[in-house]
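Hi L.,

You mentioned the student needs an example of a multi-chain input paired with its predicted structure. This one should do, with 499 residues in total across all chains.
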Amino acid sequence: MKVFNTLSGKKETFQPQGSEVKIYVCGVTPYDECHLGHAMSYIIFDVIRRYLRFRGYKVRYVQNVTDIDDKIIERANQRGVPAAELAGQYTESFFRDMDALGIERADVYPYATGEIDKITEVIQGLIDKGHAYPAGGSVYFRVKSCPGYGKLSRRNLESMMTSCSIEMGKEKEHPMDFALWKAAKPGEPYWESPWGQGRPGWHIECSAMSLKYLGDSLDIHGGGQDLIFPHHENEIAQSECFTGVEPFVKYWLHNGMVQFGEEKMSKSLGNLITIKDALEKYSADALRVFVLSSHYRSPLTYSEAAIEAAVGGVERLARVLRRDDQTGGKGEALDAEPYRKQFTEAMDDDFNTPQALAVLFDLASAINQAADSGISFQDAKEALFSLKRDVFGLKRRDVVITVPTAQIEVRGFAPTVYVSVQPTPEVEVRVERLVEERAKCRDAKDWQRADKIRSRLAELGIVLEDTSRGAKRIWERSPAVESLNSLLAELGITLEDNT
RNA sequence: GGCGACGUAGCCAAGUGGUUAAGGCGGCGGUCUGCAAAACCGCUAUUCACCGGUUCGAAUCCGGUCGUCGCCUCCA
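Structure written out for the whole complex:
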């Protein structure tokens, strides 16, 4: 397996340091709703985690929640609520979004406010070693004490000094020194510390939490490319100076940014689409496929057309999985092994999800061909299903019931497919009655009436596809009983009993 | 200004030295069907932003030009 390491700028052979892969992924600062940028990052690292497990690794996955920060305080003040309340509200919202997107929960979610002891321990350690100094109730990291500073983002102090907007802080020894601990201003939330009342600086919580929950040296640290500098650069400085252990992180993985039109989607630009808004329109599977259809290190440009294409792809994969053709008479079976191998090769090459996805589509085509020619495809179908579920986290599996449960005699036994719906018996019995009526009309060659039933049912969310075994019913929604009653009345059909 | 990434069909997007340039979406034609839908078959980039160079051979390597984006300040 090869992964692209930001630190070296190259693809490297992946070799975890211990028996389990230790992954830390930068989480959220909960002061607002999460948007598609977060979705992209967390979907990708979810898939990386799933793939590592698929390849037989044990994985320990930690993601922080930075629940105290300048932005939280600012937003809370605007709204006149306590910072902790605001953070709590958006943290809950974050978890709802993650669950809705089918992102597996991390093993640990440490909160910055819950780790003040570890944070102060690290800060004190840095002071003791001469890497940090208190000033005016705050504590700053002394960048000049860290010879490797800039190695991740490939920049040096001199070049940074020439860039535009660096102002000399009154308290800081060097303009690039950054806060480990911030003295509380009046009215701000604070914690007690050896340097007075205050709160952690932005970068220190990630160092403290990863050291506490994963040890001095992790295998993978992930996040968006916008975190490379200063956040991850500073994390390396803090952690390596504190522990003396190098490397703090063996493989740094960074995903590209979601673009909205011509620029990055971000909170500060306000050009964002929240995860909740996206999920109103598209399924989690569609959003996942949209993200996975381009490489994680490339920018991902948001467009309705691109997500619609993903919707189509998700449908294609779903349809092939609901095929239940009777096959096997020829004694041949489709072998999924070559596809599994190609899939693994693609993913082994720095998680090439677009290529791996293409393999799934190839497998889908092969299954359709096999089914059409009477070759057994059950094993291949299982392989497709497990790859898409276990590695890509695509959850949709339609419920297929081949024998109608309703107490109405229906000609033929074409499958009934429920797409995330569970109709009531009252609804089901009416639909079955309409399907039966249509079958009679078709026998009588009353195409007009038959097509009317089909198109009206489609409007109500039930698609009919004629097969040699009768009409296959695909329930995309469950209609209201009243709608069905009025359709029955319009057609002059009465139900035999009182159901 | 400094650092980095990118420019492949109508759209999205793999491929980074060598047989016919993956795959998805869309479109067109065909098979099947009463008609659809689905599925299948065929077609949809003689060409990879542009110009030079290296090479027996380049979308892939090198130089230049144009264009786009990210980071350098809070950001996934």
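You could point out the following to them. The first strand of chain A starts at residue 2 and ends at 5. The mean pLDDT of chain A is 91.

Best wishes,
N.
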